[in-house]
């Protein structure tokens, strides 16, 4: 069985400051890792994914994430946030069953 | 290229009524997934379908819920005799399904409110 833990339910950050959203997972098999963003009253949009290869993954909107197998983590980072980054961010894991297991989400609020 | 379409976007039902949620996958996608998002929670997998087949329904409640993806037309998630606890956002996603991982593209969701 797989599980995803997002340690922070809410993260307030000043505009132009860096941010890290934490994600830890547990799985007994090799996994694929994803970060999705959800804007209010909308569906989910894929930010980035880790399938294999380089552990540093770059995504859209200036976000990147690093896969750390020994720490079973996949933290999301951005060096300088904008007001438009205000949204809910979900970490997810998938294996060969193809279904996604999501964390409970982190609400990122950007303070002007 | 249109994305994943879901309708209705908002649905209000009284307890005991039926709710039918529709999902049209992206063009060329033959795999559909349904997820439920309860208030203040993440998305929970419900069911995974291919055309005319249910592949994995391990997340579906055993009673009142059913899903189909016919050869023609959208995928349907049906909830019979709705209760207040069914109030949630229901998201559909689709994928090509050709590789072991899948990039799932999500629709805007249907927000079900049970009065």
Explain how this protein is built.
The complex is a heterodimer of chains A (112) and B (115). Chain A has strands spanning 3-5, 10-14, 19-21, 24-26, 32-38, 44-50, 56-58, 64-68, 73-78, 87-94, 100-102, 106-111. With 112 residues, chain A is mainly beta. In chain A, strands 2, 5, 6, 10, 11 and 12 form a 6-stranded mixed β-sheet that branches. Chain A starts with a strand and ends with a strand. The model of chain A has no long low-confidence stretch (mean pLDDT 92). Chain B has 115 residues and is mainly beta. Chain B contains no helices and 11 strands. Chain B has strands spanning 5-7, 10-13, 19-24, 31-37, 43-50, 53-56, 65-68, 75-79, 88-95, 105-106, 110-114. In chain B, the strands form 2 sheets. In chain B, strands 2, 4, 5, 6, 9, 10 and 11 form a 7-stranded mixed β-sheet that branches. Chain B has a 4-stranded antiparallel β-sheet with strand order 1-3-8-7, with no helix packed on it. Chain B is globular, with a radius of gyration of 13 Å. The N and C termini of chain B lie far apart (37 Å). Chains A and B meet through strand 6 and strand 11 of A and strand 4, strand 5, strand 9 and strand 10 of B.
